[in-house]
Amino acid sequence: MTEIKTMIYVIPEQIRNYLDSLVPPRVAELAGMEAHALEHDFPIIGPACGHLCYLIARMTGARNIFELGSGFGYSTAFFARAVRENGGGAVHHVVWDEELSQQARKHLGNMGFNDIIRYHMGEAVQTLRESDGQFDIVFNDIDKNAYPASLPVIESKLRNGGVLIIDNMLWSGRIFDPADHAPDTDGVREFTRLITASPNWITSLVPIRDGLIVALKVAGG
Ligand SMILES: C[S@@+](CC[C@H](N)C(=O)[O-])C[C@H]1O[C@@H](n2cnc3c(N)ncnc32)[C@H](O)[C@@H]1O
């Protein structure tokens, strides 16, 4: 994983903590996953972003969701809850680490979501390319250098009127450093340029945690 482990937040701590404090308490399994991520410095999206993902999925009535880069299933749980409350469907969990896939099966199973989750182990963009169907939401949290190449694949698999959510679009502020041309930093910059310049998307960058782009697909693919 090329994501920097210890996140440097652009958003002031007071605001981050306030946004997290507004999220309803999580079930014990999910709270345990937050504690584990903190202890092991594993980059989960956290409560405020998770809750926003849940809200978007509820608002749009999403029944078919594809996640790229699912880790041990923390973000997946927010989408799975929304899909269940929307009447049922599928959330695709994709990660290339076997151990994380196994952990996700345990956590999401303990939360009673195994009838909704479709587990895949492998490279996420390739897995999406090979998947049938048109998705209501695609959530992208893979290695950042791979973001630009993922866009045409996502565009072909998300239905018109579907929503793309993509994490780390402020990339710890590294995008603002003109000397930083690490592949991940350039990947975030290039993805942002591509999607905001495309007539196929209506896009907003929400400055929450490390920055989430939320984009509505209005044409294309
Ligand atoms: C940022 S973490 C995921 C966190 C998760 N979305 C959450 O918030 O709970 C990204 C995970 O995806 C994996 N990953 C990164 N790039 C990937 C790719 N191209 N295909 C499959 N897995 C990938 C990483 O190894 C890591 O386990």
Describe the model.
- With 221 residues, the chain is of the alpha/beta class.
- 42% of the residues lie in helices and 20% in strands.
- It has a seven-stranded mixed sheet, sandwiched between helices.
- Helix 4 links the parallel strand 1 and strand 2.
- Helix 7 packs parallel to helix 8.
- The chain is globular, with a radius of gyration of 16 Å.
- 40% of the residues are buried.
- The mean pLDDT is 96.
- The site of S-adenosylmethionine has 22 residues, from helix 4, strand 2 and helix 6.
Class based on secondary structure composition and strand pairing: alpha/beta
User: Strand portion, in percent?
Assistant: 15-25%
Order of helices and strands: HHHEHEHEHEHEHEE
What small ligands are held by the chains?
A: S-adenosylmethionine
Low-confidence stretches: none
The total count of helices amounts to 8
Task: Work out the number of β strands.
Answer: 7
Cα gyration radius (Å): 16 Å
How confident is the prediction overall: mean pLDDT? 96
- Placed side by side, the strands forming the largest sheet appear as 3-2-1-4-5-7-6
Helix content range: 40-55%
- Please report the distance between the alpha carbons of the first and last residues: 29 Å
Outline, from the CA principal axes?
globular
Strand count, sense and closure of the main sheet?
7 strands, mixed
